[in-house]
Amino acid sequence: MPISSRPIRSCCWRLAPLVLALATAGLARAQEAAEAPLQLRSATELKPLPRGEANKALPIILRARELRGRPDIETVAEGEAEFRRGGLVLSADQLRYLHPDDLAVARGNVRISRDGNVYSGPELQLHVQRFEGFFLQPSYHFGRTGAGGTARRIDFIDEQRAVATGATYTSCPSDGSGGPAWLLSTDKVKMDFEANEGIAENAVLRFYGVPILGAPVLSFPLTDERKSGWLPPSINIDSKSGLQFSIPWYWNIAPNRDATLTPLLSAKRGAGAEAEFRYLEPSFQGAAQVHVLPNDQLTGRARHALNLSHEGALPLGASFTFNGLRVSDDAYWKDFPRAVPSITPRLLLADAAVRRDFDGWSSYARVHRWQVLQDDSARIEAPYDRSPQVGVRGTQRFGDGFEFALETELNRFTDPADGRADPLATTIRPTGVRWHALGSLARPFGTPGWTVTPRMAFNAAAYSLDEPLAGRRSSSRVIPTLSLDSHWQLERDASWLGRDVRQTLEPRLMYVNTPYRAQDARLAFDAAQRDFNFESLYAENAFSGVDRVSDAHQLTAGVTTRFLDAATGAEALRLGVVQRYLFRDQRITADCTPSADPLAAPDCTPLTQRFSDLLLLGSTNLSRRWTLDGSIQYSPDLKRTVRSILGARYSPGPYRTFGVTYRLARGLSEQLELGWQWPVYGRTPAEAAVAGGGECKGSWYSVGRINYSMRDSRITDSVIGFEYDAGCWIGRVVAERLSTGRSEATTRLLLQLELVGLSRLGSNPLQVLKDNIPGYKLLREERSMPAATRTYD
What we know:
The chain has about 800 residues and is mostly beta strands. It contains five helices and 49 strands.
């Protein structure tokens, strides 16, 4: 059973491509006999047939300009001779087959083609059925890696074992100075296909003649199966830990379990280790990662991180999931950003849940707890822990199109500070138990071109607090809501800028009426004001969560138009506008201040603005080279833009992309972001192919992203680097700066040497480039390589 659909890291000194197909050059593997009548068809490549004893019954086919021989003794083919048996195709100037010994002797321009791989040499001798013999001075080229090499001799011991002497491997042509840019060479390679093991003696990797890696004895897998062993070392440099060196060891425990153990050495912090364990069983799967630094020389204490994930089936059709990330101290996310794989590095969640689904309904029980990494210069307020959260939710259709939905939960909210007082806190947050129920009854009407949906809903909640709030420990309330949502979709065929398009016009009106009910703003276990966007303007409640329900008597109106390519359906242009109108003041708002009476609820400033801000959006890719998108929030009262995001990206071809994004939140932030990948010297691979010049050689590319704060007049985050494509190898130098505070940042230097068709050495900047540069494209697409040569995503 495979561990997952993603590639799994295994022993990787990429010698596997060197011998994987080489040892099968003359392999007349056992093939399944065809049931159909025998037919000879001309083909340069044959797909391998399944192995089996039926191979012994397959005929040998010889074709040449001249055939002669003695019956049952020998057959000689000369002049463009070709030998076929099963999936093996062998050609030579002369072929001689000795029947009593089952021996094929090929001399002069011997060539074997199999599975897209080509092998050639001066002489081959092979006992076909026993698969025993030798190949002198063969050269080979592997189609899937784009690389190959030579050997002095290959000895085939039997169908499963072979020995190659003086073997080399490279994807580079000779540079004219006596050798290729990089070359992997070995004195001897022993191959055992039954054990899936190759053993190389005195393996040395040279880069421009300089040895950069080597091992006296090296073991590696011969097929796509995983195998235990060492992986290429990695070198990282950052401003927090200095020079760091690591060399992973992969352990193939079982087909459905594996582990990676990585010793670490940091120039500033000392020795440490990382470990990862993964498992996949029929009813459950998961992974565990740990990062340990027993004695951080900079802080003088032990530091660690633990990340666990698990999901599996339980009896009675239930399922269980767990995800947990914990670190040793508040500064961990700054010092070891790679060890904290979270989009909120200062809020780390541990979450366990049991769930059971039945007939459109789900019941669940959940516990989640936060670890808050506080910083004295920038304190954050963490979400509440829920221990536990128990609930049922689902939808039910009945009658003549009615839809009923219900969610009911019981939550125990606790403070993630675990009783530790925050000296900078100005208020004491309430804790306690909340039961709530959210229900609705709707009846949609309409046709494919329009829908009208009246809906009645309620939000009910009851609280039992640990400490009195405004003189009370318990409270409850029920708030009803009535809404009417109408949506039209009109279409027409049109022609615009010479293109046949289908234009849609999609107006939408939504009426909401929610009466005012007094609510204590301090009871906000999971409530937050929604962001101002197209989705929130059509929401019934201006707050997310359960605790806050905005009183509303409002109408939201908007319209969207789209232009779709008539042939492909791709969206060429989208324009939209939406605005909300209040029929009365909104009294429940997010603008609340503490009351002078500590026992009284906070005072909230009513929203009296009748017309809300106007929200406009647009996006287009009418030109294949240009992509434009933007959204603008315009205030009619201020008569100015209060928020906007405007972006443009120019991509005239592969490996050429340049984007700029402007973000404005008036009074809060103003940022300009640039991102690019662009050749600065030489031709791209696509240009070289069109010009007929073969592979791209000697091309420089600039890559980067810069985020500049116009409000603070400083660069916040940045990634800047260069890539050099020499055709058969690629060099990358990337510097990354990540802000961890207004006056703090972590800087990393990533260096990588990619030997095309072999491996990548050094620290890997590719994920950083993919995450930060929209439209970034690998200079060499990933090839289908044995699992031994791949690493985790």
